[in-house]
C-alpha cells in the first residue's frame, strides 16, 4: 500500500557524519515511497568538528527534497573542553535535554500528518516524546545486526558485575548470533566499570532501542543471517521481547559524485575520478579512515613506505594527525595536512604516476564503485563496510574507534568473509612490512582472488536484497505498513 502524500516521517539522527549520511540515504528511500521527510538536527556538537559541520551543510544543500529543521541552540551547552568527562557523555546528556525542544517541534505538526519518528541509535530518548504524542517511534541502527545483537545482550552481561569488562583483557565474550568477541574489542566506553557515568549513559541510551516500535537495521539478511536470527530469538533479551527487526540495507549512496563533493573541491575530486578512469581495472588500493579517523605522523610514514614497496597503485586519503590523544581529539580543528612534511622525502614524486594522495576527504562511494578500485584499507566504520560490500570490494581492516574492532571480528569471520585484518593495529602500529605484504596478498594472490570473489557475491546479494521482492524491499514495505497501522491506532 503506497503511503498517503502529506504524511511526514520525522528523522532525528545521532550526532556525527557517519549517522547523518545513512539517515539521509534512508530519507531518500522514503521520499521515493511518497512520504515527506523532515530531518531534525541539533547544531553543535552534533556536527562536532568543522569538517563535520561542512559535510552536514553539504548534505543539507544536496538534498532539497528533505526538509531540514535545526533545533534552537541549548542555552547552557556543555563545556566539552573544560570537562574531565568524555565529550560523548555530555552529548548524550544534551540529547536527553533536547526532548523538550523536539516535543515542541513535533507538536507543530497536525497529528495525522506524522507518520513516525525515526531516531538514531543514540537519540533514543526521543521515543519518550513520540510515545507522549502517540506517534510510532523507530530506531535506525546505523551499524550491523551483529553489533545490535551484542547491544541487546549487553545489559544481561553487565548486570551485577563488580568490575569493568576491561579486566578481562582478550578473554572471549560469548553472545548469541556472533563469533566470540575478545572483551578488549568492545566499544571502549563499555569497558569501564558498569556504574561509571559513561558506561551507564551509553547502556541506558542503547537499552531504549528496545522501547521503540521497531528497529531499522542498515544491513541485509543474508550478510548477517546468524545475528538476525539471534535478534529474533527470545533468549537474546530475556524477559523482554526485542521489537520487530527490519533489515532494510544496504542503505548507502549511489556514488553520484556531485552529491558527495564539497563545491570548493569539486575540481579536485573530478580530477581524482578522471585519474581513476585512467587506471586498469581493479588495480588501485584505496585507503581511507572514515569521516574522523586520523593516524600519527610516524604511522603515515610506515604506510607510505609499505605502499611504495608494494609496487601497487593507490588512492590514499591523508588527514593531519591529531594533536592530542583520546576522544577529545574529535573536537580539534585541524588544518589541511602538509603532505611534503608528513610523507617520506621524495615519496610523492617517486609514486606520482601510480599513486594519488588526497587530503582530508574523497568522494568515497564513487571511488568504491569505480571499476579501477581493487581493495580498500578501512577503519571498519559500518557505512564504509556496507559501501564496500555493495561495490564488491575486498577490505583490509584497520579499526580505530567506536564499534570498529567488533566489526572487524564480524568482517573477518568466515560467516561474512569480506576482509582480512592488518594485525599491527592492535599494538598501535602497522609496520611498512605488513602494509606491503597485505597489499600484495589481497591484490596478487590466489587467496586474494578468492576473497574478492566472495565479496563480489556479497555485492550481488546486496543488489538482490534491494530489488522488488528482495528481503530488504520486503522489510521496508512491512515497516511502512506496520507504522501506518500503528499510527492509525495510536492516533485514535
Ligand atoms: N566518507 C567519504 N569520504 C571520506 C571519508 C568518509 O565520503 O573521505 C563517508 C563514507 O563514504 C561514509 C561516511 O563518510 O559514508 C563515514 O562513515 P563510517 O561509518 O564509515 O565511519 P565514521 O566516519 O562514522 O567513523
Automatic annotation (TrEMBL):
Keywords of the record: Glycosyltransferase, Transferase
Pfam families membership: UDPGT
GO molecular function, one term: UDP-glucosyltransferase activity
Superkingdom to which the source organism belongs: Eukaryota
Coiled-coil ranges from the UniProt annotation: none
EC numbers, comma separated: 2.4.1.-
PANTHER family to which the protein is assigned, alphabetical: GLYCOSYLTRANSFERASE (PTHR48048)
Family designation: Belongs to the UDP-glycosyltransferase family.
Designated name of the protein: Glycosyltransferase
